[in-house]
Amino acid sequence: MMDIIEIIGYILASVGVLFLFLGGLGILRMPDVYNRMQAGTKATTLGAVGTIMGVGLIHPEWFFKTLIISLFILLSNPISSHALARGSYRSGIKLWQKKKIDAYKNALKKEKEKNEAA
Amino acid sequence: MSRFIFSFIIYFALWVGFTTSLNGQELFAGGLVALIMALLTAKEFSEEGLENLTPHKIFYAFLYMFVFLWEMVKANVDVAKRVVQPKIPLNPGIVEVPTQLKSNPAKLALANSITLTPGTLTVDIIEDKLYIHWIDVKSEDPKKTFEHISSTFEKYIKEIFE
After folding, report:
1. B145 & B77 share domain
2. Average pLDDT in the A14-24 region?
3. How confident is the model over A74-115, as pLDDT tens digits?
4. Same domain, yes or no, for B20 and B75?
């Protein structure tokens, strides 16, 4: 029984490492800030959670600790990437030139007009 | 008062999780720390207090966890597939998605879920509209983007937070 849990732990950790590698590759290959962030956030979140939970299964006495750490990563990682995306857009970094639509530009313009009127 | 009890329960559960022991001394120290933390931070910690812990909400939060984990795995496979192709298939853009959620915690949960699921990244929330960077734009109409991106999550989050 212990062996099976340990093997599942090793598999989880390996899958996590694989996703971390693919996330890094994505950051190198994507064309602009926002697309890079897509690869950066998602792959690293599952990568980190997978690796940490895998370690938790290999050492069952750490399981609850790793569970809480993963929970904090799941909560904080998307917030930081959202803050990065918002900050880079507002400081003037443009979308990729082959973009299809940019609804945020108009929304920002409206917000600015509202602030100036007030 | 209800906010205070709620934050005490959460802090104490975190302590027990981290120490992973039911030793009397550990529990006593944890209770003391949780009490001080709850006294200091209960006001900022939660708006609803104990109302967050009804069986209905806990049940939906439990269901939501599985829905969310499944979507997250799909998202990662999707990004991984894109990354390994010789020519990355991209069709990006920022779209507008309306939401009916009112409270701030609910909007935060929705934005976080969207960020961690297939090809979408929340850039900003202005009032009741989310602005989302989408790696593969399938529709530019706000009604359709809602169906593509956030309708599954919104059902659950509405049950959990409102």
Report:
1. yes
2. 89
3. 888 888 888 888 888 888 777 776 666 677 777 777 777 777
4. no
Mutate to test the interface with B, among A18, A33, A38 (most CBs of B within 10 A): A38
Give which of B15, B133, B136 to mutate to test A binding, by max A Cβ within 10 Å: B133
Distance from CA of A84 to the nearest CA of B (A): 9
> Per the CB < 8 Å rule, is B94 touching A42?
no
CA dist., res. A67 & res. B18, Å (int): 9
- Residue B106 belongs to domain spanning: 55-161
Kindly provide the ipTM of the predicted complex, given to two decimals.
0.77
The count of structural domains within chain B is 2
CA distance A61 to B21: 10
What global pTM score does this model have?
A: 0.79
- Nearest-neighbour CA in chain A from B83: distance (Å): 5
Determine the average pLDDT of the residues in B51-74.
Answer: 82
**Co-location of B156 and B76 in the same domain:** yes
Domain end marker among B52, B75, B92: B52
